[in-house]
């Protein structure tokens, strides 16, 4: 069996839970799209629909104490980490009840309690942060692993290469998880990269690496778990590529007219939610149970939407909180 393949057989309960999380992310995102078109969410909004199996499978492979870093397509990543849908939706709405009190918005989600550190808008820049967090873990000599999600486009950036280089040199406990959805904004991968499997970039620094299919949540879990275990054992970092696809445009303002004819329909044939439903059905889970899960998550997502809508705006008096360190610029605090 090659490295990207899997023989992992999840239990019925495990798979049902993963289905619940994936269905929640999808419904949450559909409602975020609705809110965006109604101008209840302003600024940028990048949807994750189509890629849900990656966030859910990868999150299941982590410990709560591990660090997770992501970029701007991160609603699914933070929800899979267990952050409350209410707090995430309220953040998208820019409300004071949001996970970062409404000052971050869609692209800057963070949850200190769950070691979820972003949410970043600078493509590739966040890879250095995950590498730094892994350096800190090594320095403390604890068991913490950093996992960083990034796109195929980010794997063309200088910060990406620099992160790989140092992570491998110092054998840091970090898993670089590329979600290759074959587009960087409107540019398809074959137009900007000679290589199409971004895990191959690891070869240049001697890093353990492999590619796997990112549509089956169990396959994602198993592949990421093996990489996380390897990193945690002190052997060094791993770079993985999950083959995936985004159904929507790059952001809400992109109609995605650059796709080849029929491309989206072809990918939808291996839709992550359908796959897991089929798997569960084959395990004897009846249609009613699956529909009930769906109804429950629809309710949770709607509750998050209603909560966000009815929440207060952030207090204007707190506009500059967290902009500077407390007391910075205060002469009384400057030591002579
Ligand atoms: C340093 C930098 N360059 C360019 C941009 C503009 N930009 C935003 S997203 C993006 C595409 C990135 O694609 P990818 O890494 O594949 O992630 P995906 O959007 O597919 O999840 C670009 C070029 C940016 N935000 N930061
Ligand atoms: Mg991409």
So what's the CATH class?
Alpha Beta
How many extended strands?
9
Hetero groups: thiamine diphosphate, magnesium ion
The number of helices is 11
> Distance N terminus to C terminus?
67 Å
Stretches where pLDDT is under 50 for at least 5 consecutive residues are none
What is the CATH superfamily?
Thiamin diphosphate (ThDP)-binding fold, Pyr/PP domains
How many discrete domains?
Answer: 1
Could you name the CATH topology? Rossmann fold
Q: Supply Rg.
A: 20 Å
CATH architecture: 3-Layer(aba) Sandwich
Profile the largest sheet.
5 strands, parallel
> What's the shape?
globular
Beta-strand share of residues:
5-15%
Oligomer: single chain
Describe the structure.
- The chain has 336 residues and is an alpha/beta fold.
- The chain has a single domain (12-310), classed as Rossmann fold (3-Layer(aba) Sandwich), CATH 3.40.50.970.
- 41% of the residues lie in helices and 11% in strands.
- A five-stranded parallel sheet has the order 1-4-5-9-8, sandwiched between helices. Strands 2-3 form a two-stranded antiparallel sheet.
- α2 crosses α8.
- Residues 73, 121-123, 151-154, 181, 183-185, 250 line the site of thiamine diphosphate (TPP).
Summary, kept brief:
The protein has 336 residues and is an alpha/beta fold. It has one domain: Rossmann fold (3-Layer(aba) Sandwich).
Can you tag this structure with a few keywords?
Rossmann fold; binds magnesium ion; single chain; binds thiamine diphosphate; 336 residues; 41% helix; two-stranded antiparallel sheet; alpha/beta; 5-stranded parallel β-sheet; 11 helices
């Amino acid at each position: 069996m090659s490295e990207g393949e899997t023989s992992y057989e999840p239990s019925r309960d495990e798979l049902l839970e993963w289905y619940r999380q994936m269905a929640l992310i999808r419904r949450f995102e559909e409602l975020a799209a609705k809110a965006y078109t109604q101008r209840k969410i302003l600024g940028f909004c990048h949807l994750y629909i189509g890629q849900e199996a990656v966030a859910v499978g990868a999150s299941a492979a982590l410990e709560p104490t591990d660090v997770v870093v992501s970029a701007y397509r991160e609603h699914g990543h933070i929800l899979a980490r267990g952050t409350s849908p209410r707090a995430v939706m309220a953040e998208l709405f820019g409300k004071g009840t949001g996970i970062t009190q409404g000052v971050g918005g869609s692209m800057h989600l963070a949850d200190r309690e769950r070691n979820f550190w972003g949410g970043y808008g600078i493509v590739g820049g966040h890879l250095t942060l995950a590498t730094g967090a892994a350096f800190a873990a090594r320095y403390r000599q604890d068991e913490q692993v950093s996992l960083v999600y990034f796109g195929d486009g980010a794997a063309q950036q200088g910060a990406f290469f620099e992160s790989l280089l140092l992570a491998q040199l110092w054998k840091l406990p970090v898993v670089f998880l590329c979600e290759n959805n074959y587009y960087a904004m409107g540019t398809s991968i074959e137009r900007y990269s000679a290589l199409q499997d971004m895990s191959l970039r690891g070869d240049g620094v001697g890093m353990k690496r492999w590619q796997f299919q990112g549509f089956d949540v169990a396959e994602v879990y198993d592949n990421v778990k093996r990489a996380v275990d390897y990193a945690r054992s002190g052997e060094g970092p791993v770079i993985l590529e999950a083959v995936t696809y985004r159904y929507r445009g790059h952001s809400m303002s992109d109609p995605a007219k650059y796709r080849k004819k029929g491309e989206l329909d072809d990918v939808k044939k291996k839709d992550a939610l359908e796959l897991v439903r089929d798997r569960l059905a084959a395990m004897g889970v009846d249609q009613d149970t699956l529909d009930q899960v769906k109804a429950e998550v629809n309710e949770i997502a709607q509750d998050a939407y209603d909560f966000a809508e009815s929440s207060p705006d952030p207090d204007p008096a707190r506009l500059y909180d967290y902009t500077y360190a407390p007391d910075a610029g205060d002469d009384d605090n400057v030591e002579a």
